[in-house]
Write a structure and sequence with these properties.
The structure holds two protein chains of two kinds. Chain A is an alpha+beta fold. In chain A, about 35% of the residues lie in helices and about 20% in strands. Chain A contains 16 helices and 20 strands. In chain A, helix 1 packs antiparallel against helix 3, helix 8 crosses helix 10 and helix 9 crosses helix 12. Chain B has four domains: about 70 residues, 2-Layer Sandwich (Uridine Diphospho-n-acetylenolpyruvylglucosamine Reductase, domain 2), CATH 3.30.43.10; about 120 residues, Uridine Diphospho-n-acetylenolpyruvylglucosamine Reductase, domain 3; about 100 residues, Alpha-Beta Plaits; about 100 residues, Alpha-Beta Plaits (2-Layer Sandwich). Classes of the chains: A alpha+beta, B alpha+beta.
């Protein structure tokens, strides 16, 4: 059990944001003790919910004055334990900072508070023919502030890129509550350091984003969606490589393996995928209507020459949703098969996918685990989903050992330990697989420039400092 | 010992020469072209120990208008050449920093791939220089900037540490994003020695759409209509003062006798042939004007001329503002002189102006107006002694404090680009 807040600090926080928005009761704190990665449960000392930039800055100033660490938190959908409160930290939640402050269709930017939920932004932009491109799978729940912290991806990154490409400016509250505006539409993007790029993806370890400016894109005129059915994931991965070699740039290419297909088809989300298939590949093109049929035909030919036994093409919006169903509901369906689900995340060079998937299969066998693979094949971003039961200590240890081997494998072939879920708590131990001590020290140095007292999101991202003798 | 003598003792003879091309009027003590990463490390360690400055340089296209302070050497990366890894099916390539964009194009072209970066004089620029400056061309409107496609890089810090940042994969959130900090840091955090980039499939077909008018002012409405159209062109550029009429003889440079050239709005559209046709129709319908279509060699020559326009002349100023204020910025820039050349990007909200003889007051007015519109400005090229001072640019604000803190960590002795402030 963590130590409660000092009564004077609590009183001052209440004065600032109101009694209802300072949470200290153990039962109400339960909601905040973990995020989308259920393996870690750390209750915070308190949760404070400011509504405005000024309130957020004031909260940080008070906590800074007492030397209390802070964890900014959005919707808590993260999958790396990044929004947990370590080392007696107080969570500063953005649930009430949920206003879209300005939408400027002429300059194709929007200014918003960090607690705005991802799809709400696109809903607001759609009447102007615009949308916000990054679409993480949790987009109906996750917040823009959380997306900024994690540099979130999603299925459509292959063509459109990840969150960092769409953040044009930020207002940060530093640990002592000082507000700093960086970037912003109209400013010269070549002047000065790219502080926006540096802060996006810093997992709440530098500062808290209290206002976010995003770039919007015109909605694509049309979409074509295909589903290829393959005998194996290796064949599906070969089709992906063939599509890239063909010079096509789909908006998305997603693979679902046999374990996952069976889980989906056995669930309420059944999407009509054949359960004897080794893998399914969703390919989607978007853009100007005129060129899309030709693109889709060429992709279809790539699938067939890679051994697809069947390629389905959606003829309307309803059929498109059906083709996507198995992909979108994969995590939910897998989650029903076993008490616990570990959603892993790593990226490998796309051409290494067949080899890596085969070796992940061997690792699963060796540790007697069920692993289902659902992944962004176009970017080589893997999500091996490990099924287990947390109460089974032996199984938990095997999951841990298998995860470690999978991470080492991905790094060995030229990849990395996380493509979009972040390091958080869970992957600190793997950081040394990808970086040497100098790179990790450089990251520590950069954090110290923003947060000299180390108050922002302690115990995350960087491994513990080596203690020199 | 002079920096040249120190370096002559460290590097092979043919990699060190005394003096070099002046930067902002200041002549370097020596110019060195290390042939390996280890030699770059040696140079920076020596600079830190001996206390001379180091200005990293790629093709030298973008060293700016200000002079380094104190004795310095130019570290040219042109000796670091070669593609280290290219996997077409992964759309990824790694090359040493001194490789030029033209050389990379030659390697990727046969595989139907390219790097969609088109800053002025793109083919002769180095990959390291592109990463160090982060400089954008018109194609950034649709493809994004270099920072969006640089997957990783290797950096030698001011004190000679070798950092391998980022990686070679498309999506990577392992640790803090130091790659983006380094991209665009203009040599103040370290010397970039190699870069990993993401390539794109080269479009099958390409056209230019051209609209002409007597003055750029008459094209602003059309340019802004393009920037808010439901379909984005690959790029959109508004130029004035472009003498090289496409297909015509560009050598008639006698400005007093040739009539003032028209202003042009040039759209670049590419993709599959049917997509190009549909996008062209849709854009023209949205703008409500009929454009002239150019293709093939003529399109290539026009797009190249437009890309490199407004870069020659003693003074080059770059101004940014919200895209819907581009008309105001243009008007201010055009008032700089009779022979002003303009290259404006209505999607990015950016104007580049080259003038042969503008007064400091005139330049300050343009910069001031941009600052008032919430934008920014930079003097890319200027004669020695010409600078811009605009009230309101503070070296003491929180952003400047962060920037200084970062530079201190990467370059504790402050040997890199002495005197340059990047905030």
């Amino acid at each position: 059990m963590t130590e409660p807040l000092a009564p004077t600090l609590e009183r001052r926080l209440v004065e600032l944001v109101g009694r209802d928005h300072v949470i200290t009761e153990a039962d109400r704190l339960l909601v905040y003790e973990s995020d989308g990665l259920s393996a870690y449960r750390w209750p915070p000392r308190a949760v404070v919910l400011p509504a405005t930039t000024e309130e957020a800055a004031g909260v940080l100033r008070l906590l800074h004055g007492e030397g209390v660490p802070v964890v900014p938190r959005g919707a808590g959908t993260g999958l790396s334990g990044g929004a947990l409160a370590a080392e007696g930290a107080v969570i500063v939640g953005t649930a009430r900072m949920n206003r879209i402050l300005a939408l400027d269709p002429e300059n194709r930017v929007a200014r918003l508070q960090p607690g705005v939920q991802n799809t709400r932004l696109t809903d607001a932009a759609r009447p102007y023919g615009l949308y916000y491109a990054p679409d993480p799978s949790s987009q109906t729940a996750c917040t823009i502030g959380g997306n900024v912290a994690e540099n979130s991806g999603g299925p459509h990154c292959l063509k459109y890129g990840v969150t960092t490409r769409y953040i044009s400016g930020l207002t940060l509250a530093l640990a002592d509550g000082e507000l700093v505006k960086i970037g912003g539409a109209g400013t010269d993007p070549e002047a000065g350091y790219d502080l926006v790029g540096l802060v996006v993806g810093s997992e709440g370890c530098f500062a808290m984003a209290v206002e976010v400016e995003v770039r919007l894109l015109p909605l694509p005129e049309a979409v074509r969606t295909l589903l290829g059915i393959f005998a194996s994931v290796a064949d599906a991965a070969r089709a992906v490589t063939a599509i890239i070699r063909e010079g096509l740039l789909p908006a998305a290419m997603e693979i679902i393996d046999q374990n996952t297909i069976r889980a989906v088809e056995a669930s309420v989300y059944a999407a009509g995928y054949p359960t004897d298939a080794g893998a399914a590949l969703v390919v989607e093109f978007d853009g100007t209507d005129a060129g899309l049929d030709a693109d889709a035909r060429r992709a279809e030919a790539c699938c067939l020459s890679a051994g697809a036994r069947e390629v389905r093409r959606a003829r309307n919006a309803g059929e498109r949703l059906a083709l996507w169903q198995g992909r979108k509901k994969a995590f939910g369906a897998m989650g029903r098969v076993a008490p616990d689900l570990l959603v892993q995340d790593a990226t490998v060079p796309r051409t290494k996918l067949p080899e890596v998937l085969e070796r992940i299969g061997e690792i699963a066998k060796r540790y007697d685990l069920t692993i289902g693979n659902v992944f962004h094949a176009g970017d080589g971003n893997l999500h091996p989903n490990v099924l287990f039961d947390r109460r089974n200590t032996d199984e938990r240890e095997r999951v841990e050992a298998a995860s470690k081997e999978i991470m080492a494998l991905c790094v060995e072939v030229g990849g990395t330990i996380t493509g979009e879920h972040g390091v958080g708590v869970d992957k600190r131990k793997y950081m040394k697989l990808v970086y040497g001590p100098d790179e990790i020290d450089a990251m520590r140095d950069v954090k110290a420039v923003f947060d000299p007292r180390g108050l922002f999101n302690p115990g995350k991202v960087l491994p513990d400092a080596e203690v020199s003798a | 010992m002079s920096p040249a003598d120190v370096l002559a003792g460290l590097l092979p003879r043919d990699e060190v020469r005394e003096g070099g091309t002046p930067i902002g009027g200041a002549t370097p003590e020596a110019t060195v072209s290390p042939g390996s990463v280890e030699e770059v490390v040696e140079v920076l360690r020596a600079a830190s120990a001996e206390g001379f400055g180091v200005v990293p340089s790629g093709s030298g296209a973008d060293l700016g208008a200000s002079a380094p302070t104190g004795p310095f050497v130019v570290l040219s990366t042109t000796g670091l050449k070669g593609v280290e890894m290219y996997e077409p099916a992964d759309l990824t390539l790694s090359a040493q920093a001194g490789s030029t964009l033209g050389e990379i194009g030659d390697v990727a072209g046969p595989h139907g791939q390219w790097l969609p970066f088109d800053p002025p004089f793109a083919p002769s620029r180095t990959l390291g220089g592109l990463a160090a400056t982060g400089v954008r061309g018109p194609l950034a409107a649709s493809y994004g900037a270099p920072r969006d496609h640089i997957l990783g890089l290797t950096l030698v810090t001011g004190d000679g540490r070798l950092l391998r940042l980022g990686g070679r994969v498309m999506k990577n959130v392992a640790g803090f994003d130091l790659v983006r900090l380094v991209v665009g840091s203009r040599g103040t955090l370290g010397v970039i020695v190699s870069v990993n980039v993401r390539l794109f499939p080269r479009p099958a077909h390409e056209v230019g759409l051209v609209l002409e008018a007597a003055t750029s002012h008459e094209l602003v409405t059309a340019a802004r209509a393009v920037a808010t159209a439901p379909v984005l062109p690959a790029s959109a550029v508004l130029v004035s003062g472009l003498r090289a009429e496409v297909g015509a003889d560009a050598s008639s440079a006698d400005a007093s006798r040739t009539p003032k050239p028209p202003s042009l709005l040039v759209l670049r559209i590419h993709g599959a042939p049917e997509t190009v046709a549909a996008d062209s129709t849709r854009l023209q319908a949205h703008v409500g004007r009929s454009f002239r279509v150019v293709e093939g060699a003529e399109a290539f020559a026009l797009l190249t001329a437009v890309r490199d326009h407004a870069m020659t002349g003693p003074i080059v100023i770059r101004v940014s503002a919200l895209p819907n204020r581009i008309g105001d910025v243009l008007a201010g820039a055009e008032a700089l002189g009779d022979t002003v050349q303009i290259m404006a990007d209505p999607i990015a909200g950016r104007v580049r102006a080259a003038v042969s003889g503008a007064s400091t007051e005139g330049l300050e007015q343009v910069a001031h107006a941009a600052a008032r519109l919430g934008g920014g400005y930079a003097l890319e090229r200027a004669p020695v002694g010409v600078s811009i001072r605009v009230p309101g640019s503070s070296p003491d604000g929180p952003v400047a404090t962060l920037a200084r803190g970062l530079a201190d960590r990467f370059d504790p002795q402050r040997v890199l680009w002495p005197g340059k402030r990047v905030t």
